[in-house]
Every structure is written in C-alpha cells, then in structure tokens.
Amino acid sequence: MTEPNELPNDLAPFWMPFTDNRFFKEHPRMFVAAKDMHYTASAGHQVLDGTGGLWCVNAGHGREAIVEAIRHTAGQLDFAPTFQLGHPLAFEAASRLSLLMPEGLDRIFFTNSGSESVDSALKIALAYQKARGQGTRTRLIGRERGYHGTGFGGISVGGIVGNRRQFGTLLTGVDHLRHTHDPARNSYSRGQPQHGAELADDLERLVALHGAETIAAVIVEPVAGSTGVLIPPVGYLERLRQICDRHDILLIFDEVITGFGRIGCATAAERLGVTPDIITLAKGLTNAAVPMGAVAVRREVHDTILNSAAPGIELFHGYTYSGHPLAAAAAIATLGIYQSEGLFQRAVELEEYWADAIHSLRDARHVIDCRNIGLIGGIELEPRPSAPTKRAMEVFHRAFDSGLLIRVTGDIIALSPPLIIEKPQIDEIVEKLAAILPTVE
C-alpha cells in the first residue's frame, strides 16, 4: 500500500485504451498542459494540436467560459440524479441543443460518450419499432469500415475488423453495407467524391436478403472518421435516405465526430442536406472538457415510445450520469462559444485554404491519396511491405517529437484541428508533415 504522503507515478497500473501499452511505457510521450491551439509536452516543448485532441476539442483548449461554468457548478451542485428527478441545467442543455438539430429532431437523450450514444440510439430504434407494432423489426444494419464506439452494440454494427475480432460473435441479427472507399475512381477528391452514389443500393440487397419487415434501422457515419476519413460520394446519403423511406427503416447518423462545426454546420445532416431520424453526438458537445454524449431523436419516434407505454417508465434505459450537472454546464457554455464566435462557419471559411494545404502533400513521399471536407483531412500512405500501419505510426511519433499532434489509423493520417485554427497554423501542419514524410522508410 502506498504511504499517505507518497505520490505514485508508476506507468504500469494504467491499462491504456487503443494503445500499444508495451511500446508506450518504454517510450512515454506525455501532455501536461493545453491552451488554445497547443499542448505542452512533459519534455517542455509545444505541440500544435492538429486533431482537436481526439476529434473533440472544437473550440480550442482551456476556454475560460467553460472552465468557469464547470468550477461554479461543481461548487453549487456536484451531482443530481435524473432518474425520476431533475435539475435545471440538464433541461437547459437539452433545449439549447435541440435548437441546433435538423427540424423535428428535438428530443434529446443524454449519455456520457459516443459509444453510449450509439448503444442508446440502437435501443431507441428497437423500442420504437416494437412500440408501433413492428416487433419483427429487430435487425440492425451498419457498414463496413464503420466506427460506432466500443459498446457491444457499437462494435456489432461497426465494421472495423480489429475492433471486433477479440470479442466473439457480438450481437445477432446484424448485417453490413459495403463501404464507400473507391480509390480507383475517387483518389485525391476535394470534398465529396463524384463516384459511388450507387453503393447505397447495397441496402436493397440486404432488404431482399432479410426482408424489410425484419430491419429496424441503418446506422452510418455521414463522414467516416476513425477508419481514415471516408467522405460520402455525391448523392449517396440522399439515396440511402430514399431507400430507408421506401422500406420504412429508421436512418441513424453517427455524428459523434461530424457534429458541432467539424464540416461547417451544427451537423453534417445540415451541411449535406439529408435528415436522418436519429443523430448520435458527443465529443464537441462539451469541447471535451467533461465527458458527455447525446442522442437527438425525431419527435415522432419519441412520442410513439411514450404514448404506447403503460403508465410509468416508458424507456427502460439510462445512465447514472445522464445529464450530469457539470457536463450540462460545460455543454451550455460550449454551445454559447460556438454561437458567439461563429465557429460553425469557420470550417466553411477555411475549407478551400485547408483543401489546398492538404492536397499540397499529394506528391510527398509515400502519399497515395489526399481527401478533405470541412476541416477534416485524410492523407493515405502506401503501407510498408509486410508491415502495414508501421509507417504511419512512425510518422505519428516523429510528428509529436517535432511539435505536431496528428491521428493515424491504419496507414492514414487524419487531421481535424480545433475550429479556431488560423491559416499560418494550417501551413505549419503541412510543412511539418512535408518535412517528416521523406525521412520515413
């Protein structure tokens, strides 16, 4: 047992998520502070944040209004249950969030993460189908290469093999659409690729295979982030919406990454002009200052569940920390910053400059594709023969050491900086990558 005055500082006890723990604990890289566009590393150097933390710090680090809201609330109401009780901040946060959602998606269920938002959305979809007398609709459709968090529901509908292979058969009654990545036709696309709308027709194949009367919902990311920035082809989401309508299937957009200005509007649904029935959210909702997620639900779905239930609890689902006071306070402050500073528009204002910067790397060593939308960029590297993912990870480590935080997934560099980024910082990101790539074998 540690003595009371000892400060334990052993790296071993923390089993780190999605990490090569053995490598990290031999070669640790640590952050000790963050402000605006930069982290401070434990070695003392500044690290430009090219990824918004983990796709989540949309308004930049250390925003005083958010810090003060958390500080004040912690001193006044550290916790309040939302099972059969409530507190004003949760209702205010839900009301403010509902105003940002596409028309009709104005019922908000709070969670604590994107993973919980996805599992909640799937359960809401199933509950809705049963409530309206469609109890045979229990099948859930995801997409290859999709990422929907790490709950059992999320990895079941998700389509990243590495996230699934350790955990058995997962949920039954799940199938997957083909992914939309088509480098042969769409390499080096700026914005939405021109080819691939017909890939949405894969849903018709699954309807024919399983029967529409068995399918509850389809879930996709409007822009697939964690799998390596896969941007929907022109017309793809529109066609998916039409097919779902034709067969009376709910459409869920996982906007944990794309929400809150990442591609230029409050939601990708708004930017891309396609309205789903349910939207999952997290990350930028609180600027990542306190964990929080949410599910925005079409009012008809909400009302059907409530109005068909016997007196009492209508949905047997929730979390101890749903609508936590500190998270709600952080969300209210964060949404206020987005509005007062016009940050949702920043991705549109900077999109062309950002696209030029990303595509300036097309001739860099190892690069085989560049793609972008809003303030998201993907730079795909040719995998190292017999050692896939190793080349990108080496770039990741060298970037950190040179003062730049990037995200790598497989052999793809993913970039998603805070929306407060300025043009000279965009230049710095690509200049550092241009200098690093030739040094990597």
Automatic annotation (TrEMBL):
Its cofactor is pyridoxal 5'-phosphate. The keyword Cell membrane does not apply. The keyword Hydrolase does not apply. SUPFAM superfamilies: PLP-dependent transferases (SSF53383). One of its GO terms (molecular function) is transaminase activity. It holds the Pfam family Aminotran_3. Gene3D superfamilies: Aspartate Aminotransferase, domain 1, Type I PLP-dependent aspartate aminotransferase-like (Major domain). It comes from the Bacteria. PANTHER family: ADENOSYLMETHIONINE-8-AMINO-7-OXONONANOATE AMINOTRANSFERASE, BETA-ALANINE--PYRUVATE AMINOTRANSFERASE. Belongs to the class-III pyridoxal-phosphate-dependent aminotransferase family. This is Aspartate aminotransferase family protein. It comes from Alteraurantiacibacter lauratis. The lineage of its organism: Bacteria, Pseudomonadati, Pseudomonadota, Alphaproteobacteria, Sphingomonadales.
